[in-house]
Specification:
By secondary structure, this protein is an alpha/beta fold. It is built from 18 helices and 13 strands. It binds 1,3-dihydroxyacetonephosphate (13P) and iron/sulfur cluster. Belongs to the quinolinate synthase family. Type 3 subfamily. Keywords: 4Fe-4S, Cytoplasm, Iron, Iron-sulfur, Metal-binding, Pyridine nucleotide biosynthesis, Transferase.
Length: 437
């Protein structure tokens, strides 16, 4: 059973390793003044920063990228030097040549210059489903981030290829949980909680889609499951039918907001800090826990505050505030609606002329919704234009490069998940798809 001393000793190196990655910069609850912390100088083109370490400009600029985060090498100057009009013509020509052999998948947070070429635009759940539902497609070009492309590779057939136009398009939140940290945490939990004496497991691992394929595979191997922001409640219900408690990777906010909406209290949701023995918790806290929250967050969504909501309500008394569940709990609780990017899109779609919406999510989606609905007023709660640093890495120059590569029979930037990892990860993903309400 428990050997807390052993756990503390073995966790010492983990603490050092993880501190280097996450640093001491994590703040909890309401940030004080974050209006000055966003490097929004996105006039820099991605290829000017791809070779530099870190996430570059945008919301994740202050996050520490792990050394394992993929880098993008240089692409030919004929693409980076090309004008917008030239790239447009080349992308359209390549798309026409490739025809039905190709599907371009675009996440809602992509810039408009990319979204206009997408065959499917959606949230991470819809895009995963699109990859699964099109066995006739030879190549998916995924205009989104790395974990989404990995998921598409896992769910699609072996002979289909998934391409991420810029390999530096990762996700700082997904990088906040590494497979080594997760396995270390699991070992400690098993030592502390022991093996269950009844049918329900002591802990069920649940990972948000925004995590590496290796963590999804870990969940598949350990009777766990994946969730997205559109099905987190269903997935937690699935988990509680099978286990006494859950460990939720890597987004503490999605985990907390979902569990709170299900009636759980803060005391039942201790935070697991990967650099501390037992995640910084006592044995009693872990035994009493219902949802153990991994200490990760999204740097786009942590920028939203209750003060911003108060201001929106003062400026527009009839405003409807909608937030993504990656926002901190006080923001979600002060909002009128909460849900995935698709939920946000639908909520606004159902609005009437003259309606006002203040939205707590990434700026590209908010601006697009305003452009699509000029009869309404739609604005981002965050007064600073602070896009997702990694979604921004997908630029038409990279899209043209990978598409023309396909035309010439070359597959650039293919995302290939290791076969064993993919098999285990697909177990956890299929459980999610089956658990869908
Ligand atoms: P959705 O699942 O709502 O598309 O969110 C993905 C994401 O990365 C949000 O930050
Ligand atoms: Fe990751 Fe946040 Fe960007 Fe989504 S918005 S891809 S969670 S960093």
């Amino acid at each position: 059973m428990t050997s807390v001393a052993n756990i503390i000793a073995s966790a010492a190196t983990v603490e050092q390793r993880s501190r280097t990655m996450l640093g001491d910069t994590i703040t909890f609850g309401e940030p004080t003044d974050i209006t000055t912390t966003c490097d929004s100088q996105l006039s820099t083109e991605p290829w000017q920063i791809d070779t530099e370490p870190g996430y570059g400009p945008g919301a994740s600029t202050n996050d520490e990228a792990p050394s394992t985060a993929p880098h993008q090498g240089p692409i030919p100057a004929e693409y980076t030097d090309a004008s917008e009009a030239e790239l447009d013509a080349r992308i359209i020509a390549a798309k026409e040549t490739l025809g039905d052999r190709l599907k371009i998948l675009g996440h809602f947070y992509q810039r408009d210059e990319i979204v206009k070429y997408a065959d499917f635009v959606g949230d991470s759940f819809m895009l995963a489903q699109a990859a699964k539902d099109h066995p006739e497609t030879e190549a998916f070009v995924f205009c989104g981030v790395h974990f989404m492309a990995e998921t598409a590779d896992i769910l699609s057939d072996e002979q289909q290829s998934v391409i991420l136009p810029n390999l530096a398009a990762g996700c700082s939140m997904a990088d906040m949980a590494t497979i080594d940290q997760v396995e270390e945490a699991w070992e400690q939990l098993m030592q502390v909680l022991g093996t269950s004496n009844d049918e329900r497991a002591e802990v069920i691992p649940v990972t948000y889609m925004n995590s590496s394929a290796a963590i999804k595979a870990f969940c598949g191997r350990n009777d766990g499951i994946v969730c997205t922001s559109s099905n987190a409640t269903t997935v937690l219900e699935w988990a509680f039918e099978r286990g006494k408690r859950v460990i939720f990777f890597p987004d503490q906010h999605l985990g907390r907001n979902t569990a709170k909406a299900m009636g759980l209290t803060e005391e039942q949701m201790p935070l697991w800090r990967p650099y501390l023995p037992m995640g910084g918790n006592t044995q009693q806290q872990l035994e009493d826990a219902k949802v153990i929250l991994w200490n990760g967050f999204c740097s786009v969504h942590k920028r939203f505050t209750v003060a911003q909501i108060d201001k929106a309500r003062a400026d527009y008394p009839d405003v409807t505030v909608i937030a993504h569940p990656e926002c901190p709990a006080p923001v979600v609780e002060a909002a009128d609606g909460v849900g995935s990017t698709e939920y946000i899109r639908k909520a606004i779609e159902a609005g009437q002329p003259g309606d006002v919406f203040a939205v707590g999510t990434e700026i590209n989606l908010v601006n697009r919704l305003q452009a699509q609905h000029p009869e309404m007023t739609i604005f981002c709660l965050d007064p600073v234009i602070c896009p997702c640093s990694t979604m921004y890495r997908i630029h038409p120059a990279y899209l043209a490069w990978v598409l023309e590569g396909l035309v010439e029979g070359q597959v650039h930037n293919q995302i290939c998940v290791d076969a064993t990892v993919a098999t285990d990860a697909s177990v956890a993903l299929e459980r999610m798809l089956a658990a869908r309400p």
